[in-house]
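Q: what does this look like with DOR bound?
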Amino acid sequence: MTTSITLPSACDFHVHLRQGDMMRMVTPKVEEGGVSLAYIMPNLQPPIKNTEQALAYKSELEALAPNVTFLMTLYLSPELTVEEVRKASQAGIAGVKSYPRGVTTNSDNGIENYEIYYPIFQAMEEEGLVLNLHGEIPSDAQKDICVMNAEEKFLPQLEKIATAFPNLKIVLEHATSQAAVEMVKRLGDNVGCSITVHHLQLIVDDWAGQAHHFCKPVAKFPHDRDALRDVVKAGHPRFFLGTDSAPHPIATKEGPRSNAGVFTTPLVLPYLAKIFEEIDALDKLEDFACHFGKKFYGLSQKPGFVDKKVTLVKESNVAVPQHYEISATNADLGVVVPFYANRDIGWKIVSNFV
Ligand code: DOR
Ligand code: ZN
């Protein structure tokens, strides 16, 4: 039985670090979770739509977590121009995130039609920027589209864009379905796929009636979760970690309508060790969490940082905290409840970034 794992610090290719007090609480927790490279989502209020905003945001994050490499993205919207794409590329911005309109948190500025963005995609292809796709289409009762099939119904769009731009790197974010796994496998080497911690663990029964497991896209059928588990177990190199960790104050999770998002940042590697152990795939954890994503993106980390190691040990009674206070000085801001709060996850980090 494996009781200790040492691996390089991990890369999280999809994370929400927010702004203001929430950002100040969450950002230092990236490192606590064993992660040293974080790919940052732009759905702030207002969204990060240009290079200047992305660089200013990056400086704030770096001040809060100097050991972490932050890779920044822009929010795809009609305001994004070809010139801005070129400028972003020059400034080291890594990608552009597309949200379909209205499907999730802060997606009111999201897009409705991908073809109008083809000139942008072409410039991104030329400049080597990555297209990060939230792969769902909006629900439409008339067309029998709801959260359970919204991802599958999006897949033809993915195929269309990937075929039209064979040299554009595209990531289907937070895949949840067997159909998505099969599509990404079938498409070429320009298409990768991020997989979250929580989607390796949850199915629909776990979020129906449990607000803290509600996220977008929602967790689906058992056979869908099996497909995600199987593809990471197979060590497919185009499937890699992107947690989509998305903190929300408890009041907006447990309120009349729950915000979408699961918070995993403080314990990313312990959660993964538990899940990979359960699916008998601990030998695949390092590639999934540390190498495949960087390889797909063709990225390197801050010099001198690549060799940092994290050691986890298996232990009984490793309880996930009940919650994290958003501000140490202002209790009114409330708390964030992490994934698997109060549960024993059986693994803990004993040395980090050594
Ligand atoms: O569950 C989610 N939460 N999915 C998203 O796409 C957005 C995220 C958030 O920002 O809260
Ligand atoms: Zn996200």
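The radius of gyration is 19 Å. The mean pLDDT is 95.
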